[in-house]
């Protein structure tokens, strides 16, 4: 963290002393570069060298089974994680993936400059939450989005609570739909739509309540 703060301060000094103001885009590019260096240094401390021809993150990604698009929520997918492979603990740590040492992963169809995978974090009773990760050219995480979270135990005093199901779809052109579906009303209550931008960040395009 100290290195990152120092790097940001150095960028600000360069921007101030260079004789012209730095655009927001240039500033963000330099900050992203600093963060990437910081991430590479953290991984190097774990024995993961991104400059190595045998980049462990690339090897891991290439070893995953492919889940073709489009995909949509199903009980089978979130409960049994078909074709998902175990995530080695050094990789889980590098990807900052939480869980109890039984994490799993699968990659998605690669196109339009997108490199995506779904990571499953085991939380309790062998139940998993699902996270969609976007990766850069070094296979480092750029952004992540929660697709599905396991149900928490209902409050015993909350008798009027509505039974809500989390539902998601990912289209062939990487449009991600996250929905809350009411089992009682048989209708979608909320919907959020995300797309992947040129920097491989997930951008919220639409958020609405449908009641």
Keywords:
5 helices, alpha+beta, globular, 211 residues, 6-stranded mixed beta sheet, 5-stranded antiparallel beta sheet, Lipoprotein, single chain
In brief:
It is built from five helices and eleven strands. The chain has helices at about 1-15, 25-45, 55-65, 75-80, 90-95; strands at about 65, 70, 85, 105-110, 115-125, 125-135, 140-150, 165-170, 175-180, 185-195, 200-210.
Question: What features would you describe in this structure?
Answer:
The chain has 211 residues and is of the alpha+beta class. It has one domain. Helix content is 27%, strand content 33%. The chain is built from five helices and eleven strands. It has helices at 2-17, 24-45, 56-63, 75-80, 89-94; strands at 66-67, 71-72, 85-86, 104-108, 116-124, 127-135, 141-148, 164-170, 176-182, 187-196, 202-209. The model is unreliable at 7-19 and 154-160 (pLDDT under 50). It comes from Xylanibacter ruminicola (Prevotella ruminicola).
Count all strands and give the number: 11
Domain tally: 1
What is the number of helices? 5
> What is the CA-CA span between the terminal residues?
44 Å
- Reading the helices and strands in chain order gives HHHEEHEHEEEEEEEE
Inertia-based shape = globular
What profile does the largest beta sheet have? 6 strands, mixed
**How much is the radius of gyration in Å?**
20 Å
Q: Compute the average pLDDT.
A: 78
Parts with pLDDT < 50 across at least 5 consecutive residues = 7-19, 154-160
